[in-house]
Amino acid sequence: MNISTESINIDIIGTRLSIRFSHVIFPLDVREFSEGLLKIGYTPLAQFPPLPTMGKGIATGRIAIKGNSVIDINCDRQFIGIQNQNIENLITDFNELFILLKDKRFFGESIHHRFIEFQGHFECWSKKNPLATLKKVSSALEIMKTSEKIFDSPSALHHLRIVPAEKPIDSDDFYELIIEPNITRPTRSYEIAMVFRNHEMNKTISTVENVIPNITQIIHELEAK
After folding, report:
1. What's the pTM value of the predicted model, to 2 decimals?
2. Which contiguous run of DSSP H or E holds residue 188?
């Protein structure tokens, strides 16, 4: 999927929304859940082994598909996620999934989650040279001058990694934005990876809704330096 502005084009390579639960024991039978997905239009992808005498059906991996939306699950890590390259459809289908999870057959209204997480992978095409842009940004850093003395060669940052200040990477309230020249076309496009997670669904969904204009703004400001 391609989204364009006057000087920047963004290709959406992949996007995913997921829920990380916080139950002591993951209280979901994947067989029953798959039946619920079937009723809202999904086609099962997984073949589950015979149900044991006691216990619930568990699974890891992709379990169902509807159009371009694919649902994956990891019972051990208590994740359920949905992938779709179209952001609008991703949000719509995620909201539908969340409503299903709150059904009394599954988690019910007592659903406990640690956070809602968004992951996005993008390619950003620019009229400016990403390598030259990062070199220009690097020129203001004293450490570049030190490294040039050490290596006897001009130095520059190769990528930017933006995270919340003084927060560990495994925080439940966390974001990460990585911007670097694309490895196969470094003078023409950036490769961008983004992670955003927060306990409040509204915050995560709002971030997803605005991800393209926000990335565009950051690239514009980066290239204006």
Report:
1. 0.88
2. none
